Amino acid sequence: MKKKQKKKVLIFGAGGMLGKECKRQLSNSAMWYVIGLSERDIDITNYDSLFCAIKKIRPDVVINCAALINIDDCEKDPLRAWMVNAIGPGYIVRALKEAGRRRTVFVHISTSDVFGGRKPRWKEKNIPSPVNAYGWSKLYGEKNIEHEARGSGIRYYIIRTSWLYSEYRPTFIDLVISALRKKKQIPLVTDQRSVPTSARELAAEIEKILLNRNKPGIYHVINHSTGGVSKYQIGTEILRIMNASSHSSGRRFSRYYLTKSSKKDMFKVARPASPVLINTKLPQMRDWRSSLGEYIRRHVKS
Ligand SMILES: NC(=O)c1ccc[n+]([C@@H]2O[C@H](COP(=O)([O-])OP(=O)(O)OC[C@H]3O[C@@H](n4cnc5c(N)ncnc54)[C@H](OP(=O)(O)O)[C@@H]3O)[C@@H](O)[C@H]2O)c1
Question: A single Gene Ontology molecular function, please (predicted)?
Fold first, then answer.
């Protein structure tokens, strides 16, 4: 019997946190042959190099993890944010069409920050209303993909997610852990809620979407949470997990180092108050506390 050929997956932004998680996840399976390109290899705002890469590699799947994600940097340089987050994703779909890759599946990562209104939680079908340059640029990335893909036959998935963490890059979670261990106070915002999500588990969900051949469109992929949590609540949970994990050593971490703060005091650039995504289309991922507990136990030595 003829051996089944591996599907070729091309990842843009492969040097970033989620790009590395996707590369690890898919490289572990015999199904996929993974090619990861970082910004040093390819700039997604350069149409000609995108077209050449796609023409040469002939991928079956493209995953776009490339983005400018620093909210302050996006506000300072909205043109660059626009090029990377809005124009680049549309260029990828156009390059797929023009390189004759209409059967290639395209996965693009977007964000809960496309929502900025007063609703407490957001479904896939709700109308976005960003509050800053990052949110606007990501929203127009979604729109450009939809526009370029219309009528082309290209199956695309726009995956919105929130507050990612991973061992591949220190995030807010690691800052809290480090502050508690060094006995340093850390201010944590109480008036913004979202859902912390394991980038490792998100990469596994992306693979499931590819394998299940879900209907193309927008998906909300986050760890499970009923109403979202503030960074202060996440800090309290990190403290609980660290104290429970270090039970045998007798070491105790103190709540004293977690101090309450507000968006107004912490951020110069506007942040949405409640970018809490609800997943109404896919099976729920596990509870955020369970994933966070596993991350802390696996990566943080007490
Ligand atoms: N992190 C979060 O909490 C979060 C939450 C919700 C959604 N997301 C979304 O998830 C996706 C991945 O985020 P992440 O946390 O993995 O970000 P990340 O670690 O900053 O990775 C993004 C990567 O994109 C690369 N990049 C930037 N400009 C590029 C360009 N013009 N061409 C090619 N590559 C370029 C960056 O390279 P350099 O490092 O060399 O600049 C970086 O490696 C993004 O779409 C983001 O909007 C993230």
Answer: dTDP-4-dehydrorhamnose reductase activity
Q: What pTM value is reported for the model?
A: 0.97
| Residue range 80-123, pLDDT digits in tens | 999 999 999 999 999 999 999 999 999 999 999 999 988 999 99
- Of the candidates 103, 114, 201, 117, the one whose C-alpha atom is nearest the C-alpha of residue 154 is 103
Cα of 256 from ligand 1 centre, angstroms = 34
- Domain range list for the chain: 7-167+197-225+275-286
Yes or no: is domain 7-167+197-225+275-286 CATH 3.10.105.10?
no
C-alpha–C-alpha distance, residues 133 and 156, integer Å: 24
Yes or no: say if 123 and 137 are a contact pair by the CB < 8 Å rule. Answer: no
Which residue minimizes the CA distance to atom 32 of ligand 1?
A: 43
Residues 20-68: tens digit of each pLDDT: 999 999 999 999 999 999 999 999 999 999 999 999 999 999 999 999 9
Task: Give the DSSP H or E segment for 241.
Answer: helix 231-245
